[in-house]
Design a protein that fits this description.
Blueprint (H helix, E strand, L loop, with lengths): L26 E2 L25 H6 L18 E10 L4 E11 L6 E7 L10 E9 L2 E2 L2 E4 L4 E10 L4 E11 L12 E4 L2 E4 L5 E2 L2 E2 L3 E2 L16 E10 L3 E4 L2 E6 L5 E7 L8 E4 L2 E8 L2 E8 L3 H21 L7 E7 L6 E4 L2 E5 L2 H4 L1 H13 L16 H17 L3 H20 L17 H36 L6 H12 L4 H9 L8
Parallel strand pairs: 1-5, 2-15, 21-22, 22-24
Antiparallel strand pairs: 2-3, 3-9, 4-8, 4-12, 5-6, 5-9, 7-8, 10-11, 11-19, 13-14, 15-18, 16-19, 17-18, 20-21, 23-24
């Protein structure tokens, strides 16, 4: 297992390989989604949040009032309705997911593809689909890429722009106390039962090549997904506290000793679900967004400081990048062990030892992970192909955060830390273009995707000036919000912001390993 956390820099999940298993058989039968969940809409035209579309109307609860107009873009997003029961004692969550999917490519489809992330060996758990149908008919199925990619055959060819509905029954199982050897975000340990990727999620679609069917690379982040809208109903023991993407709509009748909550996501790239037991909470409201800090009782002071760091980061990034549109944001202390932090839409997980051992790294990690709410969540990138974009922007956010909080000395120290990592990489003759996929960065993933990438954005700032760099950040967000971007989009936004040509800068840093001056 690789420990991918640089000592001063926040890290997202990164582990090496274990052993893969085979998926359980898919039963050929249709599903009936629970009546407590809102129905998935199927119209092809642009929807509006109204009584005529209750699924969409409910989504407004996850957004700040000033951003509910974003739902006018709902035709761009697939829809998920999940009804599940969580059993922390058995380490299982089982339920149904109904997905309304639009063919957003230029190709015709004869299959729909889903990612089963927990079947990657790094997770140490399982996600089994036990029944599946498409358009109410039993669907032929199969798996690829070591059981992490599931396909369902369509009853008829789905043309570009066509819409289909798939219903799947699933059960996911996590390990317990396994963060030292598996991906800690899918694990029960230290009062947190984290269920990242617990449901079948549609594989990403590319406009010109259709479904993303690549194998999952352990280095970097696993999930590469398009934006979707989620309506999730989950039943769980009342002794546990729910942590999730999005916002609660209401509580529903449940069995004795359990609670049943309905949640909606707003436009999100995935839906995070977790449960805590024995953790305390503190909260505040920043420009309309409620921030909740979940922390272990022994670290109450640090838990309060974590809330303050999150508040400062949200204020700084709202001003620097553009407003965070969601009503809630949660920061959770947990046993991550092999990495310092991990981000999900509306929720970030922070390694528990930082609350006791290193306040500086705790602050930096929270600043980094909250920056990913913009760079990964709002603006999508290909973490399995170009991790330098979101990791570079989130790493450079550490510098911007300390500048915004008036701590210029720490901002300078962050930059010097990145410079040191990158200098040592070059001295070892291991430099690589920023555009290198994670599989090509064996042994130098962090120095390239984090340090060199952060320095690229510092070099860009130096070349186009402070005002130009500010325009670049806000333009990149405005143009990429809820979309998927790539390196050329970064270049285009920067050149538009400065009204200048940046080909040489981009070529030297991103497309080659030229001996650039370290800014």
């Amino acid at each position: 297992m690789t420990h991918c956390s640089p000592p001063q820099s926040a890290r997202r999940g990164c582990v090496e390989q274990l052993v893969c298993a085979l998926i359980g058989p898919l039963l050929a039968l249709a599903l009936v989604v629970g009546a407590l969940a809102a129905p998935a809409a199927r119209q092809s035209g642009q929807a509006s949040p109204s009584a005529a579309d209750p699924f969409l109307a409910a989504q407004a609860a996850a957004l700040l009032p000033a951003h509910t107009g974003d739902l006018a873009r709902a035709a761009e997003w697939d829809r998920y309705t999940i009804v599940a029961t969580a059993d922390p004692a058995a380490l299982t969550i089982r339920g149904t997911v109904s997905v309304t999917v639009t063919n957003r490519s230029s190709l015709s489809y004869d299959r729909i593809y889903f990612r089963l992330y927990p079947n990657h060996p790094d997770y140490g758990g399982r996600l089994d689909v036990t029944a599946a149908s498409v358009e109410g008919r039993p669907a032929a199925s199969g798996t690829e890429q070591g059981d992490t990619l599931l396909w369902l055959a369509l009853p008829r060819v789905l043309p570009p722009g066509g819409i289909a509905r798939a219903d799947l029954r699933f059960i996911a199982r996590t390990p317990r106390n396994a963060s030292a050897r598996t991906f800690g975000a899918f694990n029960q340990e230290a009062g947190l039962w984290s269920l990242a990727g617990f449901y079948p999620v549609l594989a990403r679609q590319f406009i010109n090549s259709g479904w993303d069917r690549r194998p999952i690379e352990s280095r970097g982040d696993f999930a590469v997904t398009n934006v979707g809208l989620y309506d999730v109903t989950v039943e769980f023991p009342s002794a546990w506290t729910l942590v999730s993407t999005g916002s609660r709509v209401n509580s529903l009748p449940a069995r004795a000793g359990t609670r049943r909550e309905r949640l909606v996501s707003g436009p999100q790239r995935e839906f995070y679900l977790g449960f805590t037991r024995g953790l305390e909470q503190a909260s505040t409201v920043v420009e309309g967004t409620r921030i909740v800090s979940h922390y272990q009782l022994a670290n109450a002071d640090a838990g309060q400081r974590a809330l303050r760091f999150a508040e400062q980061a949200l204020r700084a990034y709202n001003l620097r990048y553009g407003p965070y549109p969601l009503a809630e944001l949660e920061v959770v202390q947990g046993a991550m062990t092999t990495f310092l932090g991990m981000e999900y839409p509306g929720a970030v997980l922070i390694e528990q030892t930082l609350y006791a051992d290193n306040d500086r790294v705790l602050e930096t990690t929270i600043a980094h992970e909250i920056a990913h709410q913009w760079w990964y969540s709002l603006v999508g990138t290909d973490a399995q192909g170009e991790p330098w974009i979101d990791e570079g922007l989130a790493s450079y956010a550490q510098v911007l955060y300390y500048e915004a909080t008036g701590n210029s000395a720490r901002a300078a120290e962050e930059l010097e830390y990145f410079r040191g990592l990158y200098r040592r990489l070059r001295e070892a003759n291991r430099d690589a273009p920023l555009a290198t996929p994670p599989g090509g960065l064996r042994g130098n993933y962090v120095p390239v995707a984090y340090a060199k990438a952060a320095l690229f954005f510092h070099a860009l700032r130096g070349q186009i000036g402070e005002e130009g760099f500010g325009r670049f950040l806000q333009r990149y967000l405005a143009e990429g919000k809820y979309r998927e971007t790539a390196g050329p989009d970064v270049l285009r936004a920067a050149e538009t912001a400065c009204l200048c040509e940046l080909d040489t800068l981009y070529e030297d840093w991103v497309l080659s390993a030229a001996p650039v001056a370290i800014p």
